[in-house]
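INFO batch 0412 | record 1 of 1 | parsing
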Amino acid sequence: MHAPSVGSLLGLLHLARPIIGASNKGPALEWSPPTPHILPNKDAARHNAHRIFTTLHSAGRQWGSSTDHNGMSFFRATVPEGSYFFHGSQRPDRPTGFEWLAFEIEHSQFFATPWDPSRGPGRGPGRDPDGVDVEEWHDWRRAHSAHGAKPVLFLSDQDSQHPMSISEDGRRGSNVSRPTRGYLHTYRAARPLNLLYVDGMGAGKSKYGTLDTQDFILRGKTPGEFEGVPGGGVSGESDRAKELCEVADEWARQGGGRIDGIMRMEVGFEIIYCHFEEGGGLDLVSLDATALRNETGWVDPQVHAFEWVRAVGLRYDGFPKTRLNIDWSSIVSAYFYNINLTNPDTQRSEMPRVVNATNEERAAIKSKVQETMAVQRHNGNNIDWQGIVDLLVGRYSDRLAFLSKEDITVEDMRQEVNFLLYSYINFDDSDAKPSLERCRAKHLETALLKRPSWTQEDELLFTAVETVSEDICSTLIDMWEILGHKDASLAKPKQYLQGLKSRLNWSTWKKCGTCASVDEVCFVAMFPFGTVEDHYNPRCKNRTEIAGGWRDGGGERYWKM
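INFO prediction complete | emitting tokens
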């Protein structure tokens, strides 16, 4: 067992619970500890238990992070040495400083698409008969970062695309008259990379609050600073990336350990990588120019879009551990605090925001992120909280859906509930009934074996997961007691079940199931793609339907500023 670091000792003073297994290496952190009354606590974890449960289930997964896109949490994540990443650019030069990396090659291929000035303004990827230039997609305008490389997507206020071209400094202007190539960079991690993962649709530039934790917690901005700014300030990606990397570098200078980049999600996971230059942790593997429209090998933008979505669909349920590791015990979440997370938009109350939290409260969360990122622990002590949550979702998701069928009979419901509680009843007892305690604790036993080495965050996660488990079990027991009567009706059990499902709100119930054809993908709105209908009612779509969703008449766009 290692002695706690100074950062951990500060946490001990403020949270009255030791972090066991922390490293004592490195200088002390120079940071302002949280104000004593603004602390993560079990009462908040119980109050927000279902949202914390959903956070664990969705983290690092495209599907749940799309349906519940307003992330409120931070995690330490690592990718192994030798991992491949991709960068699409309009320049053949290796960037320096901060830039963007994609986990999927299909993601970066979009940004490496060549510019063809012969393609006039169009109506989106469904334009008949032969598609559309990527510059026109979704009425989005492409701008470039300070390094002239990563295109930053943001919603245009106008109805048609304003293409940009390459100028001498690598930026696109409006006067280039000949096609220009794009370039696909492939990089390999020269060492394990340390990332700060911001959950939810953290790369989604929208008015919904997808950027709240970055702008108002990590960057320390206030909502008032964005008043009157076009797009509410959400489109300033270059400034955002620059400041996030400055925060990471400052924490490292204070002895908090290296953070190589910020991991976020849009239609695909990406990394704002803070030091692209040689020696920054990335080896350049290849740099390939992309095909112009009239060359053999050119790919239609509709195909690009569909295959990008298909590739992203492979991450609906997350990454293999050989690709990404999230330290669940490192979580820092706004849900752990007694703060106001109400959305000022009453029409979107299901999506939390931090705009109503005080500056002091947001600063306290930022300090906790800094402290947690500084503490290095042995992986053997970490609890796989997502795995525990998966066991609960796996056991109950389909069965609760079955119990919710409109045409279910009393006997079918009785038999299913009997089955779910069967292993928690001792039938030798004269008054045999399900044990709430055994049902509640069943899937938490493996975590409890490691309780002596739990972090403060583990205690809060346990509180939340146990609360959700108890909610499921107690609801089923209430249904069991009613259904045990011969003359039982479905009214009360259905009422209990409806309330439970509303509280759980699991993303699994929005999945499409297996699509009928291999030329279809289950599609949900993922920034910058998708309509309002796609968000609320995901379904299987083919290439034409996905492309048609962005032309006039394809439906109301979901992602707005």
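INFO post-check: The first helix runs from residue 6 to 15.
INFO record closed
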